[in-house]
């Protein structure tokens, strides 16, 4: 009897999330990652080192690719985990591979799926709240897992539904908690609320998430969220919280305390002179508000502040 052939998964833009996912999926699939040269060199030399709640081990046999020319002939699934600022570039580079293949995204922010949908009909949106980090080249830590991954159809018909079912089954077989999300658009917006409320404030103040509880900042945080709810309503997005006040109670009562000591990625981006994902968060809200004739002064202001901070030299 011939062995059952494992599916092949290509992970594009593999940093902390993508490499951790590659390490887990390697048990049930053939995995290739497009990642930075430093990660690729370390993985080829001694394997991917994993620590944390997904297990402590070294995973060998993950394929590292530097471009489309390095890919195997058959790819079953593509998962994009790149920063949202790189979505367009990575889709352009791998356009011939993405075309006609089911492509999932586990990226932060709002708007990545719209870009990916320009390259393939079958787009699967996803959210993940697991705490991933990079300890060094080819070395990742999975610090905590607060909720299952959620995946849902963003675009596509019956083929997308079948691809979603198969992808969820594959991820579950790797012992990663995952659930189908019937309204992934709402799920993406719901996850973005925390990032919209606290990420730019933390980045600008060089402080962890707990700073958002400062009474001096409550009005700003409230303004950001109220504007986002207004824009979501105009976009036809039904958020899990009925009103901005309901979400703000959850934000200050649960999310800010739970993540009080965490520095968001936007903080690290500014400290290291990297472009942030502000245009996929507050900037997205400001732009969408303009399309719908909704005033968004808080989101517009904070977007301008972060964009200006990106241009300042010597922040690290």
TrEMBL record:
One of its GO terms (biological process) is coenzyme A biosynthetic process. Its EC number is 1.1.1.169. It catalyses: (R)-pantoate + NAD(+) = 2-dehydropantoate + NADH + H(+); (R)-pantoate + NADP(+) = 2-dehydropantoate + NADPH + H(+). InterPro entries: 6-PGluconate_DH-like_C_sf, 6PGD_dom2, ApbA, KPA_reductase, KPR-Related, KPR_N, NAD(P)-bd_dom_sf. It holds the Pfam family ApbA_C. GO terms for molecular function: 2-dehydropantoate 2-reductase activity. Keywords: Coenzyme A biosynthesis, NADP, Oxidoreductase. The keyword Membrane does not apply. Residues 9-155 form the Ketopantoate reductase N-terminal domain. The keyword NADP applies. It comes from the Archaea. Pathway: Cofactor biosynthesis; coenzyme A biosynthesis. GO terms for cellular component: cytoplasm. Residues 183-308 form the Ketopantoate reductase C-terminal domain. Catalyzes the NAD(P)H-dependent reduction of ketopantoate into pantoic acid. Belongs to the ketopantoate reductase family. This is 2-dehydropantoate 2-reductase.
């Amino acid at each position: 009897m011939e062995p059952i052939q494992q599916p092949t998964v290509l992970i594009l833009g593999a940093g902390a999330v993508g490499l951790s996912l590659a390490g887990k999926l390697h048990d049930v699939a053939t995995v290739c990652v497009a990642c930075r040269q430093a990660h690729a060199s370390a993985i080829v030399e001694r394997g991917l080192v994993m620590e944390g709640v997904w297990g402590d081990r070294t995973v060998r046999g993950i394929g590292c690719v530097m471009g489309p020319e390095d890919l195997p002939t058959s790819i079953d699934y593509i998962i994009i985990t790149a920063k949202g600022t790189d979505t367009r570039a990575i889709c352009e580079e791998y356009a011939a591979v993405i075309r006609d293949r089911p492509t999932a995204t586990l990226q932060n922010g709002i708007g990545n799926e719209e870009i990916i949908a320009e390259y393939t009909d079958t787009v699967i949106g996803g959210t993940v709240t697991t705490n991933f980090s990079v300890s060094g080249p080819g070395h990742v830590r999975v610090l905590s897992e607060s909720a299952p991954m959620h995946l849902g159809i963003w675009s596509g018909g019956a083929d997308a539904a079948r691809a979603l079912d198969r992808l969820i089954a594959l991820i579950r077989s790797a012992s990663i908690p995952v659930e189908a999300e019937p309204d992934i658009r709402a799920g993406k917006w719901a996850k973005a609320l925390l990032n919209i409320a606290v990420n730019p404030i933390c980045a600008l103040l060089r402080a962890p998430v707990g700073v958002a509880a400062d009474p001096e900042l409550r009005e700003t945080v409230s303004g950001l969220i109220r504007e986002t709810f207004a824009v979501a309503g105009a976009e036809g997005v039904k958020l899990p919280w009925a009103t901005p006040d309901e979400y703000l109670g959850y934000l200050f009562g649960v999310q800010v305390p739970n993540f009080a000591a965490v520095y968001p990625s936007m903080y690290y981006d500014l400290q290291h002179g990297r472009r942030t994902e502000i245009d996929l968060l507050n900037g997205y809200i400001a732009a969408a508000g303009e399309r719908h004739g909704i005033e968004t002064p808080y989101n517009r202001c904070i977007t301008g502040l972060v964009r200006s901070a990106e241009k300042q030299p010597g922040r690290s």
